[in-house]
Structure formats: C-alpha cells, structure tokens
Specification:
The protein is of the alpha+beta class. The protein folds into two domains: 39 residues; 50 residues, HU Protein, Chain A (Irregular). It is 43% helix and 30% strand.
C-alpha cells in the first residue's frame, strides 16, 4: 500500500474527502517526526511506539579492500509494535 492508497482507505473509513484525509495523514507524520526530532517517544496504545535508537560509533571493514574504517554514531527512528497490533495481524 502506498501513500495514495492509504489516503483513500482513510477517506473511505472516516467518511471524509480525500483532501482532508491527506492533510490529516501529513499532519500525523509531521507531528511524529517533530516529536522524534526533539527526542520524545510517541506511543499509540494498541498500535505501537515510535522512538529514536542511538547507535554508537564503531569500527567496520570495507568489503572490497578489507581496510578498517570508522562508522560514525547515528540516530535511527524505530517502531516497536504493540501487542494488540501483533495479535491483529496473526
């Protein structure tokens, strides 16, 4: 399912115009992104949690040359599904 299909599904389910569904979806993703950027966690009970996982700097190896390289520390957005969501897709 792509974004357009998701917007259609939201519009049909909520009995609203597609334009309103698109704005609602964009506002939701923007709010989640903003919260994660601040370092907050977003929890939707029954669905799951969005949070930022910090990866420390580490050493790696270039597979072509075998040369040791340094990999910088990074922050990665992560989603952990809730139990109700897990049960729903079984």
């Amino acid at each position: 399912m792509n974004k357009a299909e998701l917007i259609e599904a939201i519009a049909a389910s909520a009995d609203m115009p597609k334009a309103s569904a698109a704005r609602a979806l964009d506002a939701t993703t923007a709010a989640i992104t903003k919260a994660l950027k601040k370092g907050d966690q977003v929890t939707l009970v029954g669905f799951g949690s969005f949070f930022v996982r910090k990866r420390p700097a580490r050493k790696g190896r270039n597979p072509q040359t075998g040369e040791a390289i340094k990999i910088k520390a990074s922050k990665n957005p992560t989603f952990r599904p809730g139990q109700a969501f897990k049960d729903a897709i079984k």
